[in-house]
């Protein structure tokens, strides 16, 4: 059962530079929320705050509150946070020396799962959820790097799903993929959102329009507009949103 | 920084094409009315033949809109302009067809004396002409107030139309020989009233382009 994320007055700094200037928003459970905005608007910083990655950067600092359900993420152990808030990055980053199977199994082993049968079962389940099982079931022992770019990205999604998070963060997950692989990942997002809270950062406006239930437009570290995706792409309220989604700036 | 120049040029081209089509429709309505007043079959036939050009203009506008949707992935205000552009072209095309119906009436009635001097029907046609002009101005200027004013003009046309029908019924009762022509002229009133309705549809499209809101001006 996924839970919603409540973000309140979130500020993030890189040294003295204030990158997020007080973001307040509710990311709904079992929904895909897209974060859009021009480069440097703070959208990647925002999702990196959601799994406490931002504070790992030298001079990275955060204030405000982020709650998953009733739980304050900034009062939890960061390792536990990343267990419930999984992340997929722009470039597929499978562990290159490991097999397809081990890439997915590793998180389970680190998480303390010892039963071989359970690991096998959860690896298969994760690969099925990532719509990759049929393509790799006969080659699980091959290195992950033998997969195509699109398959590698879905492997990373399977890896993130294996530890059964509640939230899945995706930072431009298809920007390095061809159109066919992009569509497969988008279909996956559609399928996964019934079980997870999904937040996807994307530069591809059409992708946001296709996969997201709600869309947030960020500009210069501020949340300018947050509404149902259909509203953002048909009649946004703010002129700056209109200018951005119609490609007039950014 | 100016972006999407080619797209913006195409959107202006769409606007220009709609204005040209609107002007062509206005000419057709004026030509049809001129033919009716004099029951001139040559003038009437000219309007009938010219309708092909109007249909062609609609096709070109729809093709342009479809191409822009396919290649530019328009959203928000741009998308509304394009979707409404197709609807406006459809309304103008229907107005052209109605002008043809009026012109065909003139062709059919050739050689007959008019059963009454035409006063209200030309007045309706003038109002239609004004409504099409105002609708197109509202479209170019994104002028919601002017678009809303079309509802009042449409009410006036509807009012005159009811009077035209009542007068023609009264005349038919007194002069049974005039029934056939009276019915034809009542239909002309109906065609003009429909042109007014299509002009209000354009007003509704203008309001949709500007605000994204649905409205009912008719």
UniProtKB/TrEMBL annotation, chain A:
InterPro entries: AAA+_ATPase (IPR003593), ABC_transporter-like_ATP-bd (IPR003439), ABC_transporter-like_CS (IPR017871), P-loop_NTPase (IPR027417), PstB-like (IPR005670). Keywords: ATP-binding, Nucleotide-binding, Transport. The keyword ATP-binding applies. GO terms for cellular component: membrane. The keyword Transport applies. SUPFAM superfamilies: P-loop containing nucleoside triphosphate hydrolases (SSF52540). It holds the Pfam family ABC_tran. Residues 5-245 form the ABC transporter domain. One of its GO terms (biological process) is phosphate ion transmembrane transport. Gene3D superfamilies: P-loop containing nucleotide triphosphate hydrolases. One of its GO terms (molecular function) is phosphate transmembrane transporter activity. NCBIfam families: 3a0107s01c2. This is Phosphate transport system ATP-binding protein. The lineage of its organism: Bacteria, Bacillati, Bacillota, Bacilli, Bacillales.
UniProtKB/TrEMBL annotation, chain B:
The keyword Cytoplasm applies. Gene3D superfamilies: Phosphate transport system protein phou homolog 2, domain 2. One of its GO terms (biological process) is negative regulation of phosphate metabolic process. It is found in: Cytoplasm. It holds the Pfam family PhoU. Plays a role in the regulation of phosphate uptake. This is Phosphate-specific transport system accessory protein PhoU. It comes from Alicyclobacillus macrosporangiidus.
């Amino acid at each position: 059962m996924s839970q919603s994320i409540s973000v309140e007055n979130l500020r993030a700094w890189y040294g003295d530079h204030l990158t997020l200037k007080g973001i307040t928003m509710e990311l709904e459970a079992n929904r895909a929320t897209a974060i859009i905005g021009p480069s440097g608007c703070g959208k990647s910083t925002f999702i990196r705050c959601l799994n406490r990655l931002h504070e790992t950067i030298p001079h990275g600092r955060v204030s405000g509150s982020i709650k998953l359900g009733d739980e304050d993420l900034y009062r939890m152990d960061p390792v536990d946070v990343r267990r419930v808030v999984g992340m997929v990055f722009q470039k597929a980053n499978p562990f290159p020396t490991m097999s397809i199977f081990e890439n997915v199994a590793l998180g389970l082993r680190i998480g303390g799962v010892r039963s071989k049968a359970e690991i096998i079962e959860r690896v298969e389940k994760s690969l099925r959820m990532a719509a990759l099982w049929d393509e790799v079931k006969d080659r699980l022992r091959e290195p992950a790097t033998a997969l195509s770019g699109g398959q590698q990205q879905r492997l990373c999604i399977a890896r993130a799903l294996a530890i059964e998070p509640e939230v899945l963060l995706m930072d431009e997950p298809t920007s390095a993929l061809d159109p066919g692989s992009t569509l497969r990942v988008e279909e996956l997002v559609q399928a996964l959102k019934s079980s997870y809270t999904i937040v996807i950062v994307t530069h591809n406006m059409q992708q946001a329009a296709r996969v997201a239930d709600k869309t947030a437009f960020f500009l210069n570290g501020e949340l300018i507009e947050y509404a149902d995706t259909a509203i953002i792409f048909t009649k946004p309220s703010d002129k700056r949103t209109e200018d951005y989604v119609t490609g007039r700036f950014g | 920084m100016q972006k999407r120049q080619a797209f913006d040029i195409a959107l202006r081209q769409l606007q220009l094409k709609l204005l040209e089509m609107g002007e062509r429709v206005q000419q057709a309505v004026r030509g049809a009315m001129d033919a009716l007043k004099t029951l001139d079959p040559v003038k009437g036939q000219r309007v009938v033949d010219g309708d092909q050009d109007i249909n062609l203009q609609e096709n070109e506008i729809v093709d342009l809109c479809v191409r822009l949707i396919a290649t530019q992935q328009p959203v928000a205000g741009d998308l509304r302009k394009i979707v409404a552009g197709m609807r406006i072209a459809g309304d103008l095309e229907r107005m052209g067809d109605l002008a043809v119906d009026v012109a065909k009436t003139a062709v059919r009635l050739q050689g007959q004396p008019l059963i009454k001097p035409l006063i209200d029907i030309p007045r309706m046609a003038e109002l239609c002409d004004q409504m099409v002009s105002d609708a197109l101005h509202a479209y170019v200027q994104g002028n919601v107030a002017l678009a809303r004013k079309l509802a009042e003009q449409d009410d006036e046309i509807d009012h005159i139309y009811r009077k035209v029908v009542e007068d023609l019924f009264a005349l038919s009762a007194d002069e049974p020989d005039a029934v056939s022509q009276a019915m034809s002229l009542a239909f002309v009133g109906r065609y003009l009233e429909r042109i007014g309705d299509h002009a209000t549809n354009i007003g509704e499209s203008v309001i949709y382009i500007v605000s994204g809101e649905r409205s009912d001006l008719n």
